[in-house]
Amino acid sequence: MSLVLLGPPGAGKGTQAARISQALGLVHLSSGDILRAEGKASSELGRQAKDYMDRGVLVPDDLILSMMMDHIRRPDAAKGFLLDGFPRTLAQAQGLDARLAEWGRTLDVVISIEVDDALAIKRLTGRMSCPKCGRIYHETFSPPAQPGRCDVCGEALIRRKDDSPEVVGQRLKTYHQETQPLIAYYQEKGVLRPVCGAGGVDEVTAAISKECQAR
Questions:
Q1: pLDDT digit string (tens) for 168-188?
Q2: Number of separate domains in the chain
Q3: Which domain holds residue 32?
Q4: Is residue 85 classed as helix, strand or coil in its secondary structure?
Q5: What is the pLDDT of residues 161-170, one digit of tens each?
Q6: Which residues are catalytic?
Q7: pTM, 2 dp
């Protein structure tokens, strides 16, 4: 199966991508993780991407596309893959379809996890993480037993700078401008499956699994 997971910041894409890829035996390909790994490995594509990121500008669509296709073509993804954080723009989506077609493949299903802006902002601005062990908490949905301290290692919890209300608002604006047009694109192709992301984690996982099995 070839699967794409769409949704705004705060929709829970990362959590659901990990769960669904494991349940369906798919390789989880996160564009953010791949960018960081390629940069750390100093690959040719990674060096090019790092140059753009160091200058604070967006990595070009063609470069992201080449990087993702390099991983899609690897043997471990031959039985199926889940794309998380990619494509982000209409140009990336069109480029992905074109390159998959050259390879004799297509996307089977595109899941759009839908949450309204108010819930997305509430989820993101209440998020906290442990800088030592990486565990994620939320002041409302999953608070630590001791306020401000990690349950696992006792480290003081921190909030990411990009989870401030101002930055979250900008991230949502960017999503609506650049990524939402993908919904119409995939809907026209007949592969889009909307899923309500307002429920609990297990509920959303079950809804995504049901849509994947019904394709």
A1: 888 898 888 888 899 999 999
A2: 1
A3: 2-115+179-213
A4: coil
A5: 778 888 888 8
A6: 13, 88, 127, 160, 171
A7: 0.84
d(CA 100, CA 114): 26
The residues that bridge with 128 in the sheet, in sequence order, are 137
Is cis: bond before 87, omega within 30 of 0? yes
Whether residue 63 lies inside any domain: the answer is yes
Give the count of beta carbons closer than 10 Å to the beta carbon of residue 112: 22
160 close to 124: Cβ distance less than 8 angstroms: no
Whether residue 4 contacts residue 110, with contact meaning beta carbons closer than 8 Å, is answered with yes
How far apart are the C-alpha atoms of 137 and 135, rounded to whole Å?
7
Output the 3-class SS for 194-205. Answer: EEECCCCHHHHH
Q: Which two tokens stand for residue 81?
A: 């893959």
Of 4, 17, 20, 9, the closest CA to residue 191 belongs to 4
CATH of the domain at 23: 3.40.50.300
- Is residue 156 assigned to a domain? no
In whole angstroms, what is the distance from residue 115 CA to residue 123 CA? 10
